[in-house]
Automatic annotation (TrEMBL), chain A:
Keywords: Cell inner membrane, Cell membrane, Membrane, Transmembrane, Transmembrane helix, Transport. It comes from Rhabdonatronobacter sediminivivens. One of its GO terms (biological process) is transmembrane transport. It is found in: Cell inner membrane; Cell membrane. CDD domains: TM_PBP2. The keyword Transmembrane helix applies. Belongs to the binding-protein-dependent transport system permease family. Signal peptide: none annotated. Residues 73-261 form the ABC transmembrane type-1 domain. GO terms for cellular component: plasma membrane. This is ABC transporter permease. InterPro entries: MetI-like, MetI-like_sf.
Automatic annotation (TrEMBL), chain B:
This is ABC transporter permease. Coiled coil: none annotated. Keywords: Cell membrane, Membrane, Transmembrane, Transmembrane helix, Transport. Belongs to the binding-protein-dependent transport system permease family. CysTW subfamily.
Amino acid sequence: MLNRPASDTQITHARRLWLYAVAVLVMAFLILPTFVVIPMSFSDSRFLRFPPQGFSLRWYESYLTSPEWMQATWVSLKVAVLTTLLATPLGIAASYGLHVSRVPFSRVLTIALISPLIIPIIILGVGIFYLYVRLGVVNTIPGLVMAHTILAIPFVVVTVSSGLQQYDSNQELAARNLGASRWTAFRTITLPQIRGSIVAGGLFAFITSFDEVVIALFISGGQNTTLTRRMFTGLRDEIDPTIAAISSLLIVLSVIMLLILVLSNRQK
Amino acid sequence: MTAASDPALQTGDNAAALRADELRERATLLGMSVPALLIVGVIVFIPVGWLFWLSFTDGDQLSLTHYRRIADITHARIFWQTFEISALVTVLALLLGYPLAYLMSQLSPRWAGICLIFVLVPFWTSLLVRTYAWMVLLQRRGLVNQTLMDLGIIDMPLRLVYNYTGTVIGMLHIMLPFMILPLYAALRTVDMNYMRAAANLGASPLRAFWTVFFPLSMPGVIAGSLLVFILSLGFYVTPALLGGGRVMMVSMKIQQDAGLYFDWGAASALGVALLVITLGIFWVLSRFMRIERLYGGR
């Protein structure tokens, strides 16, 4: 086995062992640090020692019984759901319109829609804060949803556009030739075929909003402090093990979302 | 193809009507992108334009006061440190990311998919959570120090966090997937027939790699490196938490000026400087990869 060629250059697996070793180490570096948080969250000590001493659920209890943490969680969930509901249709409509109309400047418009990914987020944070002070929407849910929507739209546009590129739009023309209206053709022919990209875009939108920190530092506070904002300020002051419990739950959430993504793409 | 572009139809009386129809349809389709463009315009372009305006005015008149204020040694140091950290993180990410991306590009789809999971899981995990994990791991009595002491490599705990070292380690971890995904996409497209030819002509595997494969993978290397570099330039959360106040990057200075001192002039001038540098590098990046594909891997 080890002496068999591993690639077209006839290099053997044995001579390539170092490459496998490096790759395994890099994968370990990518994944292990994050998961260290999970055993920590079950520790019964205030100090984050590894391996954790004793087993307890006290940090989960402290999270679930804290009105501040619960409120922050609700704010984040509410904002993330509303952002997904707003950004996904807007993103689908925009990428479909730009893709099908094929006007010369549609690439420029696409880049304009993607620009929130290009502009350093701190600049958006400062700028949006400056705007929101004048609009009087600092520390409000609608303000947060609008700010997170512009961060989520690029992801929806990117995933849906790549879905549209892989799909043959002549099918839609065929449907229209047979008498279907544009909307019916889109709904019954195109939509089912780009469903995977839409699911991906929606998941992106949700996670982008739910995990967003920097903009929330500027425009969320008081009653409407987001979970990540509260975590960030908590981490700056002291390492509270309650955050280990919250982090573990967030890791589980991300893995679930990734699973949904992988499964929804496999169905295609 | 639409009816109006068919020459046979254009000769008839219907031509004008058809063209009007097509124009109307195109306008409707383009109209579908208006809501998204509108919200991006209001929430992104107005504030950024405002920052530009603020940075070039003092009171009510045009002036370069704010730029003169940030053209001093303190700010030069901050910019230098930002560049240095970003460059270091980029080089380290390339050194760690290339071997994995290379191996993935040659594995069967099944194994490559398994490896890809290891890249995607951290990519999908909140960067705040990952930064927190590093705070726990790297602290004085954290897992890394304890392991090193148990192994007898060190006697005293190392200062691994709340400084430069911690910032670089944390940023490297966050940025690695942004390096690996474009690299992997590029390496997959390299035609392995060239490697076969090189081997056929007597090149050792190592030589074939360096003279044939590596040069062909340069677009991916450049795209991944530029992406990681610009994302690092504007990075805030991880350096703010893992730097412990000993590391000052441009983004942190902007936050301080705006959020703490309400010094909008300085914050906007710094922001514009950072934005111009970022967009400049993006322009270079756009010649190596389509910006629309940027996060396609995620």
